Recover the amino acids of this structure.
């Protein structure tokens, strides 16, 4: 009886752990986007929006952000184009190297970026 109870407890604990890990991996882009937007906005002193953020596990791990818009600072007209718009940004991260100093990103890829800052007076 005690053995059956222990096996059942281990099985339920294992399934609960797998469910928590799977939920975290699946839902990470949904709760991390506002954090990244807030950090980027504070760092740049401009509003930053990200439409989608995806994390692809592999070697290297790749972080892909779609439709990034860096807005104008407060005081600019609302109808002007934003400062910059990037359709897709991909960053490759070697996690083993990233966890030990010096930290580095292996690759950086940017598709269809529009920088409107040079068109301003």
């Amino acid at each position: 009886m005690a053995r059956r109870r222990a096996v059942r407890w281990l099985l339920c604990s294992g399934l609960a752990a797998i469910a928590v890990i799977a939920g975290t991996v699946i839902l990470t882009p949904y709760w991390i986007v506002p954090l990244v937007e807030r950090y980027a906005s504070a760092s740049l002193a401009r509003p930053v929006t990200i439409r989608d953020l995806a994390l692809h596990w592999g070697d290297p791990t790749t972080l892909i952000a779609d439709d990034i818009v860096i807005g104008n600072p407060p005081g600019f007209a609302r109808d002007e184009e934003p400062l910059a718009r990037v359709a897709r940004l991909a960053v490759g991260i070697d996690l083993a190297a990233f966890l030990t100093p010096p930290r580095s990103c292996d690759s950086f890829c940017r598709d269809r970026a529009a920088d409107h800052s040079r068109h301003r007076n």
